[in-house]
């Protein structure tokens, strides 16, 4: 069913996937792959944070452009773009936190401000930040901007929790998993805006994936499993492919109907 946005004209079928349990499973796998894949390039292959950031930024720009040019939802293209954004987020956050020396607190704060600004401009332009409206090029630009900043923010938050204090990667994963459980409880048992809950869950899955990725490839002395980064990345990528083949992938309605969009 078509509806209208402030950008003019009817908004047709969304170009992002229907949000189901399968969506969140693949999303967490994609964020974990982004962590291990980014670390593979910057650390294992010794490219460094700047070169790795430039590489994945280029890949993300190409994929986002292809996504915007596409006429309908394509699962492989969409999830490839998500992986590119989450891998770029990993290397960009590491570059800001470590190479630029602004630290986890400064990096997370800066990225949070950027994300809030993108969502604010999106809402001011379209009157909603619901993914139901992601079909027109301008809305897609806002969407992928928000996705990129949320992915990068998630990396910074994951590293911040895991590397400061005594939490470690297991503790960090538990914290973000608990946060997602709270969001799920609000979704099922309250009338909190579904649009707000979607973005909260989307942001929280990134640091969860980041801490799980770090848990897989960090040394035993740092609380990880010391797995090979390339091997871990290959296993996660294979898991994603299997999920895409087995879990129905279709564009459709997302959390929040027209009433929720106004909430």
TrEMBL record:
InterPro entries: DUF347. The chain crosses the membrane at residues 47-65, 102-122, 168-189, 196-216, 228-247. It holds the Pfam family DUF347. The keyword Cytoplasm does not apply. Keywords: Membrane, Transmembrane, Transmembrane helix. This is Membrane-anchored protein. It comes from Bradyrhizobium zhengyangense.
């Amino acid at each position: 069913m078509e509806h209208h946005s402030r950008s003019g004209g009817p908004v047709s079928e969304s170009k992002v996937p229907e949000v189901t349990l399968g969506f969140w499973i693949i999303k967490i796998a994609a964020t974990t792959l982004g962590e291990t894949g980014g670390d593979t390039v910057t650390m294992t292959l010794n490219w460094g944070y700047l070169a790795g950031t430039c590489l994945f930024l280029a890949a993300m720009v190409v994929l986002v452009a292809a996504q915007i040019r596409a006429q309908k939802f394509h699962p492989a293209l969409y999830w490839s773009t998500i992986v590119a954004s989450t891998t770029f987020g990993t290397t960009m956050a590491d570059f800001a936190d470590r190479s630029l020396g602004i630290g986890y607190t400064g990096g997370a704060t800066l990225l949070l401000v950027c994300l809030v600004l993108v969502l604010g401009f999106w809402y001011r332009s379209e009157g909603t930040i619901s993914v139901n409206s992601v079909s027109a090029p301008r809305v897609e630009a806002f969407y992928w901007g928000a996705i990129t900043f949320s992915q990068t923010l998630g990396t910074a938050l994951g590293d911040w929790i895991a590397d400061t204090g005594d939490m470690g990667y297991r503790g960090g994963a538990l914290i973000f998993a608990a946060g997602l459980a709270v969001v799920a409880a609000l979704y099922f048992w309250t009338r909190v805006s579904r649009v707000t809950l979607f973005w909260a869950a989307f942001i929280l899955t990134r640091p969860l994936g980041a801490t799980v990725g770090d848990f897989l490839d960090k040394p035993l002395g740092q609380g990880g499993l010391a797995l090979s980064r390339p091997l871990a990345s290959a296993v996660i990528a294979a898991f994603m492919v299997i999920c895409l083949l087995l879990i129905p992938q279709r564009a459709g309605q997302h959390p929040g109907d027209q009433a929720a969009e106004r909430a």
